[in-house]
Write a sequence for this structure.
């Protein structure tokens, strides 16, 4: 008699395409065991494909439903979800698309998927209280450079050599005129994606401002971020981040070992 | 109002809307991802997320399924059938205990619709359900359509199934439409796809259930091929009529 673990392992393998029909042998139904398993397999595939569709709607519209379903099927087999919370399923779907041979001609597709991954995070990130100015008033100016921030869970940055924000908006609003007029050689975009008052915002930053934000969001001390920015406006940018609630916490890096707090602020 | 717990695990607008609705309408959190029957144990992170939703929403009811969907740290996104064995019963009961002590409350467990049976099953499903309720003091979410679907698929007597469930454990009823599919060998399999009206035989079984269990909160599940709102309202109205008839009888009995 097979154990519960053996039954479930065999059925998982069957549903994920590398089964050896071990499940069929455990069934008491004499009739059509393969048909019965197919019902479960189809339900599982449909649910996971729909989860990817919801998380990557622009990718689906760019490649069409059938192509998307085929790509999703290959992805699900390779990287099925590890949790039943599917709102963030497809974390590695952009990288999968990058190596998905049939999509190779759509060079900007993986970056559209990266933007959608950031949008998905912004939509579903857990709520967190934003860091307030008042929490920083006791920090003396001489140690300001050691401030390390924790970015708000809903905020992230996306870089692409293609105008993926314009493509993304045109695809989702079905604006074919804009889509047809997009010049893919207009250059790179540096984007900040966030949830503000429940709405998703995708904003373009200039390169220096984006790199300053990247340094701060990855927990580097303010002094290091200012060095990266190398721009007299950086203090104003920091104030704008605070005002927009882009941080949820802060720590002070060790003066002797600035990377220590940075690691702990991640 | 009943929602899938898994749709409210993030922050932002969805959970805030549900908090607002909750001020006026009692909420039932119906989970689909906890996998009570997993041999390898519950996903603690998922249980924690359920706990967090429950903390914010303070639901009137919480429920999960007698099935499994996680194996090898992989979520298979379907309510998969368990072999009806003493081993599976012990696993499910251990997990229901764990969930109830984590949440600090009683949960309901729902009977599945199944499309296959395991050769080594030894416990009839209705006895399995009753045993889980008896051993863990959990309640039962009686899905009348699932009873009908599984009974037809496996040649059971749906009335005998209902009669075997402990009346005082029933905390909620589900109804739904289902479809029929031809098998390769000309057999027919009924599929619980929540995509059509509740059929007459299931309404009859529902009346039997109400007579036995009393007026229990009832949800009609419809999430594929969703029809015009009037059709849904008419389905709900029919269920209300049947519940009212039973409530009248209960009132008359109390008066007497």
């Amino acid at each position: 008699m097979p154990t519960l673990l053996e039954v479930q392992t065999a059925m998982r393998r069957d549903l994920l395409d590398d089964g050896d029909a071990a499940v069929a042998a455990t069934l008491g139904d004499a009739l059509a065991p393969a048909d019965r398993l197919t019902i479960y397999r189809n339900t599982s595939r449909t649910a996971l494909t729909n989860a990817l569709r919801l998380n990557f709607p622009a990718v689906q519209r760019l490649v069409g439903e059938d192509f998307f379903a085929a790509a999703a099927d290959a992805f699900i087999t390779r990287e099925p979800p590890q949790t039943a919370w599917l709102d963030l399923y497809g974390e590695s779907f952009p990288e999968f698309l990058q190596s998905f041979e049939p999509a190779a001609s759509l060079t900007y597709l993986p970056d559209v998927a990266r933007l959608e991954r950031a949008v998905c995070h912004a939509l579903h990130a857990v709520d967190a209280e934003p860091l307030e100015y008042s929490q920083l008033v006791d920090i003396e100016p001489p140690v300001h450079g050691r401030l390390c921030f924790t970015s708000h869970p809903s905020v992230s940055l996306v870089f692409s050599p293609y105008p993926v924000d314009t493509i993304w908006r045109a695809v989702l609003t079905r604006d074919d005129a804009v889509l047809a007029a997009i010049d893919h050689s207009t250059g790179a975009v540096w984007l900040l994606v966030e949830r503000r008052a429940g709405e998703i915002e995708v904003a373009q930053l200039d390169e220096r401002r984006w790199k300053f934000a990247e340094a701060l969001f990855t927990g580097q001390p303010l002094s290091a971020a200012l060095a990266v920015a190398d721009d007299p406006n950086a203090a104003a940018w920091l104030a704008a981040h605070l005002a927009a609630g882009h941080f949820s916490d802060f720590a002070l890096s060790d003066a002797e070992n600035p990377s220590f707090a940075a690691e702990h602020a991640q | 109002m009943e929602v899938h717990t898994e749709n409210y695990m993030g922050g932002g607008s969805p959970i805030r809307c549900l908090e607002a609705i909750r001020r006026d309408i009692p909420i039932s959190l119906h989970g689909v991802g906890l996998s009570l029957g997993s041999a390898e144990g519950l996903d603690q992170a998922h249980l924690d997320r359920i706990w967090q939703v429950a903390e914010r929403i303070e639901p009137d009811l919480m429920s999960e399924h007698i099935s499994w969907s996680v194996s090898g740290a992989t979520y298979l996104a379907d309510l998969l059938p368990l072999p009806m064995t003493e081993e599976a019963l012990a696993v499910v009961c251990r997990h229901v205990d764990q969930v109830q002590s984590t949440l600090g409350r009683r949960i309901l467990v729902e009977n599945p619709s199944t499309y296959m049976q395991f050769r080594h099953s030894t416990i009839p499903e209705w006895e399995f359900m009753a045993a889980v309720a008896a051993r863990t003091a959990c309640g039962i979410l009686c899905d009348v359509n699932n009873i009908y679907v599984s009974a037809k698929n496996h040649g059971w007597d749906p009335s005998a199934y209902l009669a075997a469930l402990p009346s005082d454990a029933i905390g909620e009823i589900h109804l739904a439409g289902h479809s029929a599919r031809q098998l390769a060998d000309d057999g027919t399999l009924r599929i619980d796809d929540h995509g059509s009206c509740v059929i007459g035989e299931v309404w009859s079984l529902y009346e039997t259930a109400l007579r036995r269990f009393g007026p229990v909160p009832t949800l009609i599940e419809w999430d594929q091929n969703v029809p015009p709102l009037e059709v849904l309202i008419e389905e709900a109205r029919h269920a209300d009529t049947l519940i009212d008839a039973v409530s009248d009888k209960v009132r008359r009995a109390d008066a007497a």
Observations:
- The mean pLDDT of chain B is 96.
- Residues 22 and 135 of chain B are 32 Å apart (CA to CA).
- Residues 229-255 of chain B form the longest helix (27 residues).
